[in-house]
Amino acid sequence: MPAPEALVLLIGSELTEGRLRDQNGFFLSQELTELGFFVREVRLLPDEPSLLRAAFSEALATPARLLISSGGLGHTSDDLTADLWAEALGDVLQVSPALLAALEERFRQVGRTPLPYLERYARVPQRGEALPNPVGLSPGLWWERGLRVIVALPGPPAELRALWQEAVAPRLRDRFGARAPFTATLRTTGLPESRVSALLAEWEKRLPSAFRLAYNPSWEGVSLHLHAPAEIDPGLFEQQVQELRRLLAPYLYGEGAVSLAEAILHLCRQQGYTLATAESCTGGHLAASLVDVPGASEVFLGGVVSYANSAKETLLGVSAWTLADKGAVSEEVALQMAEGVRQRLGASVGVATTGIAGPTGGSPDKPVGTVWIAQVGPGAHRSAHRFIFPGDRQTIIQRATAAALSLLWRGLRQTLPQTSEA
Amino acid sequence: MPAPEALVLLIGSELTEGRLRDQNGFFLSQELTELGFFVREVRLLPDEPSLLRAAFSEALATPARLLISSGGLGHTSDDLTADLWAEALGDVLQVSPALLAALEERFRQVGRTPLPYLERYARVPQRGEALPNPVGLSPGLWWERGLRVIVALPGPPAELRALWQEAVAPRLRDRFGARAPFTATLRTTGLPESRVSALLAEWEKRLPSAFRLAYNPSWEGVSLHLHAPAEIDPGLFEQQVQELRRLLAPYLYGEGAVSLAEAILHLCRQQGYTLATAESCTGGHLAASLVDVPGASEVFLGGVVSYANSAKETLLGVSAWTLADKGAVSEEVALQMAEGVRQRLGASVGVATTGIAGPTGGSPDKPVGTVWIAQVGPGAHRSAHRFIFPGDRQTIIQRATAAALSLLWRGLRQTLPQTSEA
After folding, report:
1. Is A367 near chain B, with CB under 8 Å?
2. What is the rounded distance in angstroms from the CA atom of residue B72 to the CA atom of residue B111?
3. A33/B contact by beta carbon, under 8 A
């Protein structure tokens, strides 16, 4: 049996006019995929009745077993979703006195006077259901039509998520009982996509046709996503994943939803190492990516953002002579920064970045995008690498941060006993 | 004349399966709206030939004057966009020897051997154009069919943006010369949305009906987006904007695409101030948000991420006695951190954050989310504020960073002569 199809509609002119960044599409795509649905499409639509009417009737003409919308359930004049779904499904909305009383009671409990617009939120479908909203006013709406389910959820992400977890996901699990497909995500760093692809070419040729392999390159590395339908033999899937692990072993930093920073902190914890950072061009992004991981404080002692040359001298002890002789963007300064922060904080490992993020500051022998990354420790480890990153300031900063994480992971990995696996 | 319509197609199973968070839809929605287009829809689609074929032909059946796609232009087997657009438009792709030679040359310049797959990136439409990609391999593709333009852009956000800025936006401006609607974005910080709304209530009542005001709250503050159709009198629009400026003056840090960090750097440059940061719970995010602004180095000298208590002592001179007596998350430590980094780097202003981002580390009198933010300088200015932010670790870090920027802007703003305007 193929995966049941789902179609997602995200409603609101604030989305299509770029005034608000959508958060629900990504969440619903993840959750629906997890539940075993194939998401055939996510549509973002403005609050225009004619476009919404057309989109709803197009959605009802697809083979999708689940139609799910977010947004447009408020009480202002541009909130059209409930009425237009009712219209498309030949249904009518009516005020439920019980729901209205409950909403009014919630207002009184927080010391507010119930307002007339609460009636809008108390409307329930005659031939459908209202799903109580645990954190906001607008209930979710649920219709069943033959094999198909139609769900309308409120747009605020906290409300959508609460309704999803408490009401929608359990009902969908009951109703579709879809067996989730097999999926595995293997994350590598240190090899460009073309070399990962070359490494896997032979194996890919022998991969059974029901399997699908997708490449997801990012600045941190290449993630491989292996997918197979729920019907196949679980042993067969596991066998292919193990083969993939074996081929990628030297570059594999983790599986599933792990980040490179998490993998680094994990390696450090395993070996009892502590970390310190010294950043010039990455300006705090490297430290921030480590601190973003819960529990970072066990491993990450701190860092210095030595943006001005004077800060490199004062806070890190970089020699004024080296700065003048070799320039701030040099192998020697990168190594002195890493050594300086390592010593000052008493860390096992010091990592440093120094470079020219642009748009100004480049020269013929050190163009914009030139970045030195150094690592000192654990033990006697000392290395520095030069990069020339293309792109604008933001891109250079992001790529330099990712490259520092990648070098750090590889440096830490080398210190592991040879028999150990990622 | 109504605004020309645009339709956006974002292609890639990594988007519909929730493996990658889309960034292009938001960017294109903003840019197209800015150029005067009405975005009738943004569709996210998986790499399935039948669904893409249907979506392309449906797009060609709408009245949209501009169809723009992102993604699916790479060299792997799931990259279908170029071929399917060519098919839908009755066109053929052919390898351009000149483009192939240029791509091979780019490989050689960075010391790489040109690979056979470069041929995929050298294919250009016979009855369309290839737009050179300044930062990646895949050119953009451009077709004109009657009144309609069809553009295919690569999926990596840095490549899409570079192509957009250098080639697509200028061409669209030339071709459509749409009279953009009047828009103004005024950015405030330091007031919650409900208080901004109360401040503007009287003015909003008198606003002519053709105008639309939207509120965009973020952690950094509330942005107000005023919109009026292209047909109205420009003087009338300007008059309303001036009224809005006057009402918001004490909180208004900028207009248009300016960030709070940019406004801070601007205020510092105006007054000849330099900045230094000392971060505990924000872990580098505060420094990073300043460094992200081009030209930050004129103002921002550097900072310390003093994550461990030992780092607060060693790098900032925070007293061990105060740490033991008051705790790391306290007014006294925050002030000593700000003073310490200011003195060590010789900056006009020192800003510090110290708090508990969670998920662990909270206590009854200092729950997770407790954050102290201190500012010392310019001159004799000294202040510290306590916050208790709700949310998960990421949210607390983001809100603390935003609050530090907001306090910094307000602190700097107070030192301006009273007559000055933002």
Report:
1. no
2. 27
3. yes
